[in-house]
Amino acid sequence: MATRKPKMKIKKNDLVQVISGRSQANGGDKGKQGKVIAVYPETQRVLVEGINRVTKHVRAGQPGSSSGGIEVVEAPIHVSNVAIVDPETNKPTRIKTRVESVERDGRTKTVRTRVSVRSGKDL
């Protein structure tokens, strides 16, 4: 039995805003915006640029890091804690999918477009 990957509405390079967690006044990331670097559908998590930064101890001689020490890197955050930013209002929004039938070369093709619920604009 093959396992299916869960569906994710957030894609790589989307601009997202953190909508839950600790506030910025308490040292958290709530309200911050950043670009999605990577999406992990298996664990329902996304990696966002500049969000959820953690300190990581790296041993000297590991590939990708010439010297050891303490590094600050982004950690994945759950997809339910972020929302896509509406390009028109610059505020978080939900997403709906508009399905259209397009006819090309005598064939009917189904096209799915992500649409912002807040402004109705395509994403």
UniProtKB/TrEMBL annotation:
Biased-composition ranges, Basic and acidic residues, are: 99-108
User: Known Pfam families for this protein?
Assistant: ribosomal_L24
Alphabetically sorted, this entry's keywords are: Ribonucleoprotein, Ribosomal protein, RNA-binding, rRNA-binding
The alphabetized list of GO BP terms reads: translation
User: What GO MF annotations does this protein's record show?
Assistant: rRNA binding; structural constituent of ribosome
On subunit structure and binding partners, the annotation says: Part of the 50S ribosomal subunit.
Q: Where is the Large ribosomal subunit protein uL24 C-terminal domain?
A: 51-122
Protein name, entry field: Large ribosomal subunit protein uL24
Output a single Gene Ontology CC term carried by this record.
Answer: ribosome
Gene this protein is translated from: rplX
Q: Does the keyword DNA-binding apply?
A: no
UniProt xrefs under CDD domains: KOW_RPL26
